[in-house]
Design a protein that fits this description.
CATH superfamily of the largest domain: 2-enoyl-CoA Hydratase, Chain A, domain 1
Oligomer: single chain
Number of domains: 2
Strand order of the largest sheet: 1-2-3-4-6-8-11
Radius of gyration: 18 Å
Largest sheet: 7 strands, mixed
CATH architecture of the largest domain: Alpha-Beta Complex
Helix content: 40-55%
Strand content: 15-25%
Number of strands: 11
Structural class: alpha/beta
């Protein structure tokens, strides 16, 4: 295991995968500007290290992530972060979802507790979500006088029926882990004490595979996700011809 020093996250590597652990338990792992910058820096490390084939993201304490820090919102820091995102800067909350989706390595969220607001959207931007049976999820933006700005209006209708997406976004209601599994928000639910063991086991199995095939298959999965089958087959044929 290789640990690097950060303030608001813990970054470590085990074999073929790395783990980013959000580490502001007293603040329910809400995003601080420091945390946002450190997550982006950790993703940079994952991108550059050819030995890392999978990224795992989790949190310490009772929460996976609760989105923007309310205190930071009051001080205008979140507004500044969002403005940066629309201006194209990398170190922002809204760009995390895009970075994870574009990362050419599988990303697994180990949802250890509350994942709400931007924290839920952060989890939804991961490729696979393993949830503790103690996890609780909610799109709380509307209760904060906001709309989902971190990808929720994209991910939710893509993962769950449109009426469920509307319900979650318009009410901000909390969803228990097993209900989240039933509706398709998470991939798997495991006992809380087995969360990291299960997640690391999956990450290790994925990491055993060819990194180029992992990258190509991830690219194709999301490129073809909402295409017609005919267009997807044509697209795949074009890629295969280019690789000959």
């Amino acid at each position: 295991m290789c640990d690097l020093a950060f303030q608001d996250i813990i970054y470590s590597r085990e074999g073929g995968f790395s783990i980013i652990t959000l580490n502001r338990p007293d603040n329910m792992n809400a995003f601080s500007l420091t945390m946002l910058k450190e997550i982006h820096k950790a993703i940079n490390l994952v991108e550059k290290d050819e030995k890392i084939r999978v990224l795992v993201i989790t949190g310490t304490g009772r929460a996976f992530c609760t989105g923007a820090d309310v205190k930071a919102m009051a001080q205008g820091q979140v507004a500044t972060s969002l403005q940066k995102s629309f201006n194209g800067a990398a170190m922002s909350e809204a760009n995390l979802s895009l970075r994870l989706r574009n990362l050419e390595k599988p990303v697994i969220a180990a949802i250890n507790g509350y994942a709400v607001g931007g924290g839920l959207d952060f989890a939804l931007s991961c490729d696979i979500r393993i949830a503790s049976d103690q996890a609780k999820l909610a799109e709380v933006f509307i209760r904060r006088g906001l709309v989902p700005v971190d990808g929720g209006t994209h991910f939710l209708p893509a993962l769950v029926p449109i009426d469920k997406a509307c319900d979650l976004i318009w009410t901000g209601d909390m969803v228990e882990a097993h209900e989240a599994l039933t509706m398709g928000l998470v991939t798997k639910v495991v006992p809380h004490v087995k969360l990291m063991e299960s997640t690391k086991g999956l990450a290790g199995r994925i990491a055993e595979n060819n990194p180029l095939l992992l990258a190509l298959s991830k690219r194709l999965i999301y490129k073809h996700w909402q295409m017609s089958l005919e267009r997807a087959v044509d697209s795949l044929s074009e890629i295969l011809e280019l690789s000959d």
